[in-house]
Amino acid sequence: MTQELSQQIEPNNIPKHVAIIMDGNGRWAENHGQMRVYGHMNGVDSVREALEAATELKVKHLTLYAFSTENWNRPKEEVDALMELLVDTILKEIDKLHKNDVKLSAIGALNSLPNSCQTTLQTAIDKTKNNQGTNLILALSYSGRWEIKEAIKSIVDDATKGTLTSDDINEELITSYMQLNNVPDPELMIRTSGESRISNFLLWQIAYSELYFTETLWPDFKKADFFKAILAYQKRERRFGLVSKQIK
Ligand code: IPE
Ligand code: IPE
Ligand code: MG
Predict the structure, then answer these.
(1) Which domains does the chain have, with CATH numbers?
(2) Per the confidence metrics, is the pTM higher than 0.70?
(3) From CA 28, how far away is CA 121, in angstroms rounded?
(4) Within 13 A of 125's CA, how many CA atoms are on the CB side?
(5) Is the CB of 16 under 6 A from ligand 1?
(6) Out of 45, 71, 131, 200, which one is annotated catalytic?
(7) pLDDT tens, 63-110?
(8) Whose CA is nearest to atom 3 of ligand 2?
(9) Which residues face 191 on adjacent strands?
């Protein structure tokens, strides 16, 4: 079925950037009579599948919401387990990622992560920085409002230094102060687990993204599900404020 789906995909209309809110690990674990962390562990397999699917379709940028600013308020055991899982997963996967030409990067308040995470992450980022394949971007200790706040702080700092004035402020300039400044806005944003909300993900960048919500819980989200999301995206008419006739 997976191959059948991928054959239906129009190769000339592949999004350059797909962003995913990977949600539902806790409920998946509960459905299997297990602790929440078991859901997170199984979620790693879905990350691998999404990356493989993106690579196969030549989606250049894949941004994954792995840990939000708000997630710091979860019970300490769960936060600790997630941080440990992050380190273990990077250590386990880095050679394969590198071999597959994947370029790993991260957005978010990375300096608030535990030291072991920062070191492991930075080593992996450095190792893969010259790779030319899929750009895998992990959003860690990230939120959209945090990113906008940071951008505003930097803009005000530069204005204070005199390197820019209010006349210089336009949408391009604001974008250039965002962490994702060198990546095009996601054409497609996917959220799993049946929740229809953005939960403070890429607020600035999703102004015109197509949103795709699925009931599937993240650990059950496989390559075929990624292909289904792309097929749904390809059926959408992106009008950007115009009328249908203008874009035909
Ligand atoms: C998403 O799954 C993973 C993270 C937020 C880190 P959840 O842990 O939110 O799972 P549910 O939503 O409770 O099922
Ligand atoms: C969003 O999921 C954050 C990540 C997937 C990392 P949450 O489970 O934290 O979102 P809410 O709380 O249901 O909105
Ligand atoms: Mg959740």
Answers:
(1) 2-143+187-233 (3.40.1180.10)
(2) yes
(3) 27
(4) 13
(5) no
(6) 71
(7) 999 999 999 999 999 999 999 999 999 999 999 999 999 999 999 999
(8) 68
(9) 21, 213
